[in-house]
Amino acid sequence: MLSTASFLTLGFLLGMRHAADPDHVVAVATIVSGRTGVLRASAIGALWGIGHTATLLLVGGAILLFELAIPPRLGLGLEFAVAVMLVVLGVRSLLTHEHAHGARQDATRPLAVGFVHGLAGSAFVAMLVLTRIHEPVVGLLYLLVFGVGTMAGMAAVTAAIAVPSAFALARFGHGGRHLRVGAGLVSVAFGLFLAHRIGVVDGLFGANPTWVPH
Q: How many CB atoms are closer than 10 A to CB 131?
């Protein structure tokens, strides 16, 4: 049986691992592509983590405290929102020609993206906690530690993504535009793939939806 300290440490490590999920990486790569500054990219990743953690605590906490059951169609609908968001991010990246963005816009977009990702992942994390521990205070603390882990993990991921962008801009001048287009295409393609899997294969738009939280 894991001690509380071990359980929370595991939560932090799983949070860092959660940040590297493909849909998360594709989303933040689309946001930071074509930008200079590793520190600025890390800040964007941390903002994503803040948005993700806020939703995790609000929604996941409610699921944990009240032991709510999530209907399959609702769970799939939240995941489908991530797919739509990836397509929108990709299209926006393809249509963007400017390198500079305002500070408010730089902060709002990763927060909003993290919020949507948090909605889609809250049920899984909360149900994972429910199967391991039945003390609400420890469960909520786990959600918080998990969220901090996602912040740290995404800050590291975005910093790593920003390195080739910074190099391309410094070396080739217009390389950032190519990176942005490439990231946009990947985001659109991955979003459409997820939309098909969730909507058709998992049955969101069918009579008998099958939802396995992940």
A: 7
Task: Judge contact between 3 and 135, C-beta under 8 A.
Answer: no
Asked if residue 193 lies in contact with residue 82, where contact means CB atoms within 8 angstroms, the answer is no
Q: Provide CB contacts within 8 A for 43, sequence distance 6+.
A: 155
pTM of the complete model: 0.88
Structure tokens at 139: 């469960």
Residue 35, helix vs strand vs coil: coil
Residue whose token pair is 């709510």? 68
Residue corresponding to tokens 């205070």: 137
Secondary structure of residue 124 in the 3-state scheme = helix
pLDDT tens digit string along 121-180? 877 777 677 667 777 888 888 889 999 999 999 999 998 888 776 666 666 655 567 778
Cα distance between residue 96 and residue 110, in whole Å: 16
